[in-house]
């Protein structure tokens, strides 16, 4: 058994499942875990030479470029009163402040 390949596939699947978990949970902790596991997965993908390795690395880099700024944006919005999954609050607040 090739342990390097096992770790590579483990972190690739772990990055997929933690990203999906963030979409379900929508919390700052889930986003941090998804981003950090995805960065580890990206580092492991560098230097791999098999079928579709360039496409997998490119997809992982795109996911990093989405998850890392999303973490900072969510942290910024959380500091100024944004409540994660409570988008109804934001929508109602915007409608109630509008003058007709």
Descriptive tags:
100 residues, mainly alpha, 4 helices, elongated
Structure characterization notes:
This protein has 100 residues and is mainly α. The chain has one domain. It contains four helices and no strands. It has helices at 3-25, 28-45, 53-79, 87-97. The longest helix has 27 residues, at 53-79.
Summarize the structure.
The protein is 79% helix and 0% strand. It has 100 residues and is an all-alpha fold.
How far apart are the first and last residues' alpha carbons, in Å?
A: 69 Å
Tell me the β content: under 5%
Q: Which sheet architecture does the biggest sheet show? A: none
* Gross morphology: elongated
Number of domains: 1
Which secondary structure elements does this structure contain, and how are they paired or packed?
Layout (H helix, E strand, L loop, with lengths): L2 H23 L2 H18 L7 H27 L7 H11 L3
Helix pairs in contact: 1-2, 2-3
